[in-house]
What does this fold into?
Amino acid sequence: VPAHFKEEFLAETVRRGEKVVVKCQAFGDRPISVTWKKDGQLLDKQAEKKYTIDETMTDEGVTSEVHIVSADRRDSSLFTCVAENSFGKDEMNIQIIVQERPDKPFKVTAHESTSRTISISWSPPYSGNSPILSYTIQYKPSSGSWKDDSKDLTASGADSKASIAGLLPATTYHFRVMAENSFGKSDFSSYVSATTDLEVPGGPPLNVQADAVGSHTLRVTCLQHSNYRMED
It folds into this structure.
């Protein structure tokens, strides 16, 4: 009986850090030799120290297992089990998908701005083999701290840009972005700086005070314009 498999393809999803056993069972007349490939290249267990291979003879053929002690993204690969005897040869493919939290977004860039808004964009990161559910845009005045003075804006996982409103005129802000999937949150990206535009008053000044500072000099103070509102 030629060496053969009863299944041609399997897919297995695992979480990063989990122990994984990639298994194939070949049928046919013995002796049956089994070799493994990873993404089309012969799996060399001497070079790939993280993999160990065990074989067990059965009444119907042979079972071979590749053991991975702690899976990481390098193990997201197509493993091919090749069985051969004197009467024939067959292959079985097992796709391993390692899932984890996403990487941090990158290429965070500030674009057009007004006196009250700034738009930013970012490049989606490696998703961790799990859909990105949302992004968090965190921002603060450049003089403030991330811990005490920052605010958050949430964008959907399909977005790669956002407009932040409610800012103060002529103020420099820092912006950074974080991604989240069902396995956790990424680190924050590096921050980008941007400054809002000046805001031109649209009405007459209020609370005007004039104080004499000399026999020929007045000091005029305007505390607030009628349409200029400082926001929290």
